[in-house]
DNA sequence: TTGAAAGCGGTACCAA
DNA sequence: TTGGTACCGCTTTCAA
């Protein structure tokens, strides 16, 4: 059987209260007692039960992480960053892949509450804002990551999607491209929407209009991107550059280009977003807007832990700047 | 404040014992009482505390998952499969990326025990077998996934790495290749070792010897694979085909081929292992030995849950057969 | 400096 | 069919 605080107390000839105190470094305990107790804990390989501790109203040192899909490279990289910082600060993380379904979100949130997680990191799309508000109302620390609900008073870490879109457009326009197309996620995904907005705005600032039919939206997977890119590339009047709103879509576009015999970047430039493993692995490697994934993970965990500690009462919204990483998928427009 | 069993009892004018019974469907409770209590639980939005329940010796409905790195596509896909089946059966999973370091493994395991997880799935390399044995000795359900420690009585799910290696070799030899090289993980990684053993054995069965210097081992990342592949391809006497022991290494090999101007599959065939997202995304898409990831996840969760229920006392070791998926990275040897 | 005892939110045994 | 109550392992007053 595992040793309990009672075993330690009995062995040391003291009360459990005393043991509890040395365990938490509280109250006044004589050096000898303390030392003796430590020795016994060591010898019995005592490990306090997080469960019992949590029941007395303390923390569980567990965080919930809601993401659309842990097998999506962007989110698995985010998860890793969060796990690392969590581990650093003593927290475990429970992963919850929601497939962006509100129904799964609700199930998971309810589960996390029953397990008394100390906080919840939400990096998944949520249609129903009530869900977040209810959490907040219950006083459960929540941080939004890569999702934005500006109207709600909740700590948030996002990358500046709008600026990312602008940078993508500038880059392509600077290379001489004028016929630009966009493949994004469906309109309900705010990050994608913002990227597109930035992209379009920058185009207009340069006096270029986003052509009718050159804006495609779909789900986030490779196959979706490929399908939409094919539509773009097979029309008689096809774009010379595509901005894909994430790496998976971009890879799909790459495949589409190959399928119709267009060479990237010579016949077609592609700019992507995320800078996951995929963008390095693709051929050619993707020019992409890098999200500072590691930093995001660190920040988001710090935020939630600070909120737990009760320090840092004011809600904040941190916006990180994406950085354009130029690789092989973009090239100057060849004048014909 | 969250409603507790006491609130429900008071509201219903019964004892907490009664409420507990209807909650667990135990004992004899009159239909009316039961109905009334359900109604009140509903109204008060009552959610039993997993923490409190766990403290009374019941389960936490939480599983620990030890993997080398959640951001590695193979493991993130495995994690997703495990999470899904876990959710299906009512279990959450805590992710633990170990980087294959025993020290991190031990820290995480100790943490998981303090949190009283119901079971631990180990899919990470462990040098020290004692770690697993200690767990077993404490009666904590453990299942090994994609790792093998045949001498220890522990439930295990593995893919038949040896056969995978054989299939890879057969495929290449069938295509007419004779100068075969291998890039694997370092020798301490059993799965890689077995794949290589199978590959080599099949070569020998065909009267081909694995040439000196044509076996390279390294870490598991893309850059490692690229480096080793470059060494192979830059020697004056270079192989016509490479068997890379996982998708990341294969992608590295692909990059190396490109770097030295060899076309895959015409100048060089590459067979990979895993069939993660990467193998579809690579250009050309990789011929690879598919691990039945989803099935593995399902199986491993079922096994551990069965062990929890006390059913299925006998330890079993399930070996899954990998399947050769032929894509674009392999082609018949061109006679010169 | 130490200890007794009342919780925390449930479960389960034994009575009623 | 219901209820009283002793736990589960730990924290935290309040006294001693």
Automatic annotation (TrEMBL), chains A, B:
<dbReference type="GO" id="GO:0003700">
    <property type="term" value="F:DNA-binding transcription factor activity"/>
</dbReference>
<dbReference type="InterPro" id="IPR001387">
    <property type="entry name" value="Cro/C1-type_HTH"/>
</dbReference>
<dbReference type="InterPro" id="IPR046335">
    <property type="entry name" value="LacI/GalR-like_sensor"/>
</dbReference>
<dbReference type="Pfam" id="PF13377">
    <property type="entry name" value="Peripla_BP_3"/>
</dbReference>
<dbReference type="GO" id="GO:0000976">
    <property type="term" value="F:transcription cis-regulatory region binding"/>
</dbReference>
<protein>
    <submittedName>
        <fullName>LacI family transcriptional regulator</fullName>
    </submittedName>
</protein>
<dbReference type="InterPro" id="IPR000843">
    <property type="entry name" value="HTH_LacI"/>
</dbReference>
<dbReference type="InterPro" id="IPR010982">
    <property type="entry name" value="Lambda_DNA-bd_dom_sf"/>
</dbReference>
<feature type="domain" description="HTH cro/C1-type">
    <location>
        <begin position="4"/>
        <end position="47"/>
    </location>
</feature>
<dbReference type="Pfam" id="PF00356">
    <property type="entry name" value="LacI"/>
</dbReference>
<keyword id="KW-0804">Transcription</keyword>
<keyword id="KW-0238">DNA-binding</keyword>
<feature type="domain" description="HTH lacI-type">
    <location>
        <begin position="3"/>
        <end position="57"/>
    </location>
</feature>
<dbReference type="InterPro" id="IPR028082">
    <property type="entry name" value="Peripla_BP_I"/>
</dbReference>
<keyword id="KW-0805">Transcription regulation</keyword>
């Amino acid at each position: 059987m595992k040793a309990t605080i009672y075993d330690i107390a009995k062995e040391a000839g003291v009360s459990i209260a005393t043991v509890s105190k040395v365990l938490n470094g509280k109250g006044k305990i004589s050096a000898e007692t303390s030392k003796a107790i430590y020795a016994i804990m060591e010898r019995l390989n005592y490990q306090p039960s997080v469960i019992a501790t949590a029941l007395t109203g303390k923390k569980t040192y567990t965080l919930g992480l809601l993401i659309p899909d842990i097998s999506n490279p962007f989110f698995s990289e985010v998860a890793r960053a969060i796990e690392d910082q969590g581990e650093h600060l003593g927290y475990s993380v429970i992963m919850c892949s929601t497939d962006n379904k509100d129904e799964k979100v609700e199930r998971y949130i309810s589960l996390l509450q029953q397990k008394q997680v100390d906080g919840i990191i939400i990096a998944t799309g949520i249609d129903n804002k009530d869900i977040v508000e209810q959490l907040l109302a219950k006083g459960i620390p929540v941080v939004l990551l890569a999702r934005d609900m500006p109207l709600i008073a909740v700590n948030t870490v996002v990358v500046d999607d709008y600026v990312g879109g602008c940078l993508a457009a500038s880059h392509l326009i600077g290379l001489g491209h004028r016929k630009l197309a966009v493949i994004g996620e469906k309109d309900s995904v705010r990050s994608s929407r913002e990227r597109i907005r930035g992209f379009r705005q920058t185009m207009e600032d340069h006096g270029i209009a986003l052509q009718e039919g050159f804006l495609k939206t779909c789900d986030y997977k490779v196959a979706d991107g490929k399908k939409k890119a094919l539509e773009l590339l097979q029309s008689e009047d096809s774009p010379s550059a595509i901005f894909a709103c994430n790496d998976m879509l971009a890879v799909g576009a790459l495949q589409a280009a190959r399928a119709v015999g267009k060479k990237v970047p010579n016949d077609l430039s592609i700019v992507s977003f995320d800078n996951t493993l995929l963008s390095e692995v693709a051929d050619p490697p993707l020019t992409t807007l890098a999200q500072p994934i590691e930093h995001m993970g660190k920040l988001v965990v710090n935020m939630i832990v600070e909120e737990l500690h009760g320090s840092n009462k004011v809600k904040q919204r941190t916006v990180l700047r994406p950085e354009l990483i130029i690789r092989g998928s973009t090239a100057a427009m060849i004048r014909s």
